[in-house]
Write a structure and sequence with these properties.
- There is one protein chain.
- This protein is of the alpha+beta class.
- Among the domains are: 186 residues, Isoleucyl-tRNA Synthetase, Domain 1 (Orthogonal Bundle); 158 residues, Isoleucyl-tRNA Synthetase, domain 2 (Alpha-Beta Complex); 148 residues, no CATH class.
- It is built from 29 helices and 36 strands.
- The strands form twelve sheets. Strands 13, 14, 15, 16, 17, 18 and 19 form a seven-stranded mixed sheet that branches. Strands 9-8-21-23 form a four-stranded antiparallel sheet.
- It starts with a strand and ends in a 13-residue tail after the last helix.
- Its EC number is 6.1.1.9.
């Protein structure tokens, strides 16, 4: 649809046309957005009877959501393309507020770009989430992983659970009203994506980037699988603590260093070694000291005796040993510590794995075999104490690494895995960031990433679970390490036959690796897969990669290096990151903390009993563990005892994006959410106000009266157009820089503070009296319609409904986005300052009336005694001050004879004194008593500080900086007192903020 405002040029003037109405403005700047008409206005009773007095989201949001779902990317096939991908939600349950935040940010960008004329390709998808889905499925099925193997009932049942979750999440996503291209939706475990995964693994292997080897990984004994860093939670401790570990009867002690005596070979001396893990002594292969540590440098090259099994251990020197940790001597256990693994590799030390995959001590532990690894700690210590090897203990600060899926303590473990070599690819990425070819916003996250990547390790691709992409590698049963990479079993058979010069008759002798690929491998291929690779070699660049800061390393980095390795191209060159949703205590929202909020509960509302029933069902179905259920109920009782009100989608978006998304943590304040809900209603009422008056004009006159803008003298109209220009300019800046909190505030400022609170109040009397009525209404209509366009990306539902009621055809999303240059000629800084002063004076008069007990609708006589330079400006705004403050205004000094019956406040306007006087009200004495008490308190503080400042001892010994600070505090106090004390007993001063 076209806007009701058309523009054309005639004789050097810019013409605004409103149906048969037109006005002229002498300028060379284009105003408006293209031609059109409004349509037939409603009859005289339409607005009162059919336009609700309050905006109810539930009445309108679903209608617009259904309309937007029908949009396709073919709508603008010849326009420039703006591409984004939605970070795929895991098919593990329901959406949470973190997803809602991502949707709000990306949909705001998507709508802005759509209104700028781009063809939008915003592609949704879903992640099969290997370990996460696998864990939840096992909990639901109440079976052990070892019961069923890959391809059996377990995998089929996980598929069934994942499919149901995917359908549920897709419905949730669709209900949020985002402009997603559902015709392009993907799933990381569908056939087409699986083919891309196999092909990518094959290509990377052929390029020498994927290799098999023994590496140290994060191992979950409960899952019996390696896990990624993102699946590891970190629990800080500052000293001794106990922690309940799955499959262990008693809590396990952490935060303690045990100082053990290792005897020296052929000597009666020993050396103290500090360790936090005595249960791994059976895997010790050396002791290490820092060669620069003079206390122990002489030990290098000697042998020590392991106190638990009497085996000899070489003492080596390595600069990575921290001299300040423990005693300065450490044991080296390469199979169970990442730093020890690196040190061991440098010194060609063996790797002795003493822990089984399910977390028990193995044969190397001798008599301790079969004991849960962490339970063995106290047993080993008891034995060492009997041998006089346990000399002392000390507390220390550190971190426990916990598997986020099971709550188990993560075990560093060495196993044969497939690894992707990342060093060269990462260097290319680092160089592009440093050269600013690749942009990460905000910059501080880019700096953090560079620091992290400087120590990046090879990427472990193998996972020992049933759910995920099977690794396309095979071996012949007689050659356990003779792996070949192939896209299918037939191809593998041919490769193996050629490799070993044999003929294989029985294909069952060809064994595929039982591991699956890390979920991040398949998700890192999303940009490549969506580009049609490998059929199409050119990658379709993503215009903006927006995602959470927490997966910058785990997902963004991997997408970049994988895409570059396969296509020699970056998948995107600009990343915008947002913070993490946390509760009011600063804790990240998660099921394990019981603080997850379903965004649709906020949108649609839900009572406490329904929340309780939902939690019970989640417990019964295995979606929640008992501990998670208990925490959820505890959170509900303390935070949401009444459940959630129905706030609507716009209020949720506005509340989320009113925060600085680029900060570390974000939250959802229910009070502010309520304010956002009220704000959408404020917009609604502004439109209703306009339509009622427009309806009245058209009923009585048949049309608006024509006028020439050159004859417009109304400061209120010119001021609103100036404000509108600033609004447009701010929106351009804030959307372009991703500062959505400033964008939200600019919307609130224009509609709330300027259009509703000031402009409409300024013109109400004129509208009632019929003064400049058509002019005011035309300007108001233009301001509202332009404001709706500017606000639509953030609050699309209410703005779309308002637009439809204003113009009755078409969609706001299809309107061009306003540009500030269209209204630049209306910018009037001088008028803006004058109105700001007016607003300040009005606020002071209103405040004074309230404080002295005067009724709000009373119209007292007000004297304003200003400096000569201020009088003309105040006089020119006299009628507006009188209307807004409900008073009768006189510019001049208060007559001396009337001072006793008046009360005066002193304010500052542009640094100059201005007195405001009004007759005393019912609460004047109470107000004056309060002011006098304030003076007394300030004077007491002033006296104390003066004594301190004038004290000779202070003057002699205090530094000049301290003296200056105290002197400034004295000056500030004196100013405060002067502002409160009046020149006579009936006057009081005030310096408003």
């Amino acid at each position: 649809m076209k806007s009701m405002f058309q523009t054309s040029r005639r004789g050097g003037y810019l013409i605004f046309r409103h149906r048969q109405t037109e006005f002229k403005y002498s300028t060379t700047t284009s105003v408006g957005d293209g031609g059109g008409n409004q349509g037939t206005p409603p009859n005289a009773t339409t607005i009162e009877s059919e336009f609700p007095k309050a905006y109810e989201p539930a009445l309108f949001e679903e209608t617009w959501n259904n309309k937007w779902l029908k949009r396709t990317s073919l709508d603008r096939k010849d326009s420039p393309v703006f591409r984004m991908i939605l970070p795929p939600p895991n098919v593990t349950g329901k959406l949470h507020l973190g997803h809602a935040l991502t949707i709000a940010i990306q949909d705001t960008i998507a709508r802005w770009k759509t209104m700028q004329g781009y063809k939008l390709e915003w592609i949704p998808g879903f992640d099969h989430a290997g370990i996460a889905t696998h864990t939840i499925a096992l909990r639901k099925l109440k079976i052990e992983n070892s019961t069923l193997g890959p391809g059996d009932l377990l995998r089929d049942r996980i598929q069934d659970i994942a499919s149901k979750n995917l359908d549920s999440i897709q419905k949730q996503l669709a209900s949020l009203g985002a402009l997603l291209n559902w015709e392009s939706v993907y799933y990381t475990l569908d056939e087409s994506h699986s083919n891309v995964v196999k092909e990518a693994f094959f290509k990377l292997f052929e390029a020498g980037l994927i290799q098999r080897g023994d590496g140290i990984v994060n191992w979950s004994c409960c899952l019996q699988s390696s896990i990624s860093d993102v699946e590891v939670d970190h629990v800080d401790f500052k000293g001794k603590m106990t922690f309940k570990v799955p499959n262990h009867d008693d809590p396990v002690e952490f935060g303690v260093l045990y100082n053990l005596a290792y005897g020296l070979e052929n000597s009666d001396q020993s050396v103290l070694v500090a360790t936090s893990r005595p249960e791994t002594l059976f895997g010790d292969v050396a002791l290490a000291v820092n060669p620069l540590d003079s206390r122990f440098a002489n030990l290098i090259g000697k042998n020590a005796i392991n106190p638990v099994n009497d085996k000899l251990l070489p003492i080596i020197g390595d600069p990575r040993v921290k001299t300040s940790f423990g005693t300065g001597v450490v044991k080296i256990t390469p199979a169970h510590d990442k730093l020890d693994f690196a040190i061991g590799a440098s010194h060609n030390l063996p790797k002795l794995d003493v822990i089984t995959g399910d977390g028990f001590l193995n044969d190397l532990a001798g008599n301790y075999k079969g004991i849960p690894r962490l339970s063995a700690r106290s047993i080993v210590l008891e034995a060492l104490d009997k041998k006089w090897a346990l000399k002392s203990v000390q507390e220390y600060a550190g971190v426990i690494n916990i598997c986020s899926r099971t709550g188990d303590v993560v075990e560093p473990k060495v196993l044969p895995h497939w690894f992707l070599k990342t060093e060269k690819l990462t260097k290319i990425f680092i160089d592009s960031i440093k050269s600013e070819e690749f942009i990460i916003s905000p910059k501080n996250y880019g700096v953090d990433l560079l620091n992290t990547l400087s120590n990046s390790q090879d990427w472990c691709l193998s996972r020992q679970i049933s759910w995920g992409h099977e690794i396309p590698v095979y071996r012949f049963i007689d050659h356990p390490e003779g792996w070949v990479v192939a896209l299918d079993r037939q191809s593998a058979k041919k490769k193996i036959e050629a490799k070993y010069n044999i003929t294989i008759d029985d294909e069952s002798t060809i064994i595929q690796d039982s591991d699956v690929l890390d979920t991040w491998f398949s998700s890192s291929l999303i940009p490549v897969a969506l580009s049609g690779w490998p059929d199409f070699k050119e990658i379709k660049e993503i215009s903006l990669m927006e995602t959470g800061r927490d997966i910058l390393l785990y997902w963004v980095w991997r997408m970049v290096i994988i895409s570059f390795a396969l296509t020699n191209q970056f998948p995107f060159k600009h990343v915008l990151l947002h913070g993490i949703i946390s509760d009011k205590y600063g804790r990240k929202m998660s099921k394990s903390k019981g603080n997850v909020i379903d965004p649709l509960h906020v949108v649609n509302g839900i009572c406490y009993l329904d929340l309780l029933e939902e939690a019970k069902q989640s417990l019964e179905q295995g979606d929640l563990e008992r501990s998670e259920y208990d925490l959820r109920i505890e959170t509900m009782d303390s935070e949401y005892p009444q459940g959630f009100k129905p706030f609507g989608r716009d209020a949720l978006r506005f509340a989320l994006l009113s925060q600085n998304i680029q900060g570390q943590q974000l939250g959802l304040d229910m009070v502010y959410l309520e304010n956002c809900r009220h704000f959408t209603n404020k917009l609604w009422q502004a439109l209703r106000f306009f339509l009622l008056y427009r309806e009245n004009v058209e009923k009585t006159t048949g049309n608006f009266k024509s006028f020439d803008v050159m004859s417009v003298t109304s400061k209120a109209d010119l001021w609103l157009l100036s404000c509108l220009y600033e609004f447009m300019s701010d929106v351009e800046q804030y959307l372009d820089s991703g500062q959505f909190h400033f964008y939200a505030e600019s919307i609130r400022k224009f509609f709330y503070q300027q259009l509703c609170d000031v402009y409409i109040e300024l013109i109400k009397n004129d509208l009632k009296a019929g003064v400049d009525k058509s002019q005011h209404l035309l300007v108001l209509e233009y301001a509202i319609s332009t404001g709706l366009k500017l606000s639509h990306p953030l609050i699309p539902f209410v703005t779309e409904e308002m637009w439809s009621r204003l113009f009755q055809s078409g969609q706001l999303i299809d309107e061009p986005f306003p540009r500030s240059k269209e209204l630049k000629s209306f910018h009037n800084a001088e008028l803006n300052r004058a109105v700001l002063k007016t607003i300040k004076v009005v606020k002071e008069i209103r405040s004074l009336k309230t404080r002295i007990g005067m009724k709000a609708n009373s119209r007292p006589l007000i004297y304003i005694d200003a400096t000569p330079s201020q009088v003309p400006e105040i006089s020119s705004m006299k009628s507006h001050i009188e209307n807004l403050a409900r008073c009768t205004l006189t510019c001049g000094s208060l007559p001396p004879l009337e001072r006793s019956s008046f009360i005066t406040v002193i304010i500052q306007l542009d640094g100059q004194i201005c007195k405001i006087s009004t007759p005393k009200g019912e609460a004047t004495e109470k107000y004056l008593e309060g002011e006098n008490n304030k003076i007394l308190k300030l004077q007491v503080r002033l006296t104390k500080l003066k004594h301190q400042y004038e004290n000779p001892n202070f003057q002699q010994h205090a530094s000049q900086e301290v003296k200056e600070k105290l002197r400034k505090r004295l000056e500030t106090l004196e100013l405060q007192i002067n502002e409160v004390v009046s020149s006579n007993p009936s006057e009081n001063t005030r310096n408003p903020s």
